[in-house]
Write a structure and sequence with these properties.
This protein is an alpha+beta fold and about 475 residues long. It has four domains: about 90 residues, Uridine Diphospho-n-acetylenolpyruvylglucosamine Reductase, domain 2; about 120 residues, Uridine Diphospho-n-acetylenolpyruvylglucosamine Reductase, domain 3 (2-Layer Sandwich); about 110 residues, Alpha-Beta Plaits (2-Layer Sandwich), CATH 3.30.70; about 80 residues, Alpha-Beta Plaits (2-Layer Sandwich). Helices cover about 35% and strands about 20% of the residues.
Length: about 475
Amino acid sequence: MTLPAPFTHALRQLLGPENVADAPETLVCYSLDAMNEPAPEGPELVVFPPDEAAVAGVMALCQRFRIPVTPRGAGVGMTGGCVPACGGIVMAMTRLNRILEIDSDNLVAVVEPGVVTQHLQDAVKPLGLFYPPDPASANTSTLGGNVAECAGGLSAVKYGVTKHYVLGARFVLPDGTLCAAGGKMVKNVVGYDLLGLLVGSEGTLAVITQLTLKLLPLPEVRRTLLVAFASVEEAGAAVAGIIRARIVPTALELMDRPSIRAVEDVLHYGIPTDAEALLLVEIDGKPGDVEADFLRLLEQVKARGGHIALEAADAAQRERIWEFRRTISPAITRLKSLKINEDIVVPRSEMPRILRRIEEIAARFQVAVVCYGHAGDGNLHVNLLAERQDRDEVKRALDAVEEIFKASVALGGAISGEHGIGLAKKRYIRYNLSPEVLALTRRIKQAFDPAGILNPGKIFPDEP
């Protein structure tokens, strides 16, 4: 579409020329996310609202002219959620990046959506507090983007995901109306749970301009270790055994041999590459509780043939272990020119079975697969690798994706645990949502956005 001249003139007057970009290189950058697939129709303008009033003004203007708006954080999503599917404008929220308040009395932080996740974590740590959601992209992802996708992270097995930490929000509807829900209260059952609707809505219902987030006291001690196994299935069985034994680690991360080797080739940390799988395990809490859980955990690990490959002796070594885990996704991009990154989730007890099914599917379609992820909460990142120029290999990889989705659903799971639906998965959403639920979801979308201007083309399988 071509933006009407009166619209672009009004937009520049509203925001000032410094907050509106139309350079070709900027438009290209804002037509992609970490999935690295170009937008079906790139943006015609990128705007950078400096405050909440500007967001409301942009939305009202876009509603008046029926211009599609794609909200965007840092652009590190994996499913095309922030990629403009229908042209129009991209609204980048990165200039609303202030930490407005850290309230130690109520254990909350009030932030703007463009705050980088790690910046909040760094700000609250000296106060003896922490913000638990910690996606691997914490150094770059923004809190608004995390809320839009309901980001999980490395500590979700014990501490939960983003939706468990959003206590309040201010948000702008597609017509420019400013609303607020929740606040600093821990309990609040007044009216419908609008926060629950907004978290994970992928920017299709409203534009968040402020967040009130729950904080927790820092744990007293941590133990962090890598456990090696002779097979991925044994590692999966250990995960199920640990949970069955009522041990709840802070984190329980799985890495298969290809992912281990890919990262070691980059970092050269001396991590053992002869293991078929590693579990990164972290336990935190009070000293006595941590020691007791550690001993019980070792029993479960040894019963499945595992052994400790490395335990962090200090904070620096702990950080190196975590850096090893966070480097997996970028490291495996070096293996082939196309990486299809999926994040299925199954009940934790089904971890051994889904790992076996993934191996069978990879062999049947003759496609390279790298598995890692949050095994402690049943959320696996399954990466299918292919060469872009090899059409047959790409087709086999995409066919394998669909079979892996079917396998996860058959085991009581879902096609996404934290990456969302966006563009990449909307064709598969019917595997999890019935026609009745999809119809209800669409009615919710229409109630918030009757003109259909906010992040159109996402989630629903029959939208172009």
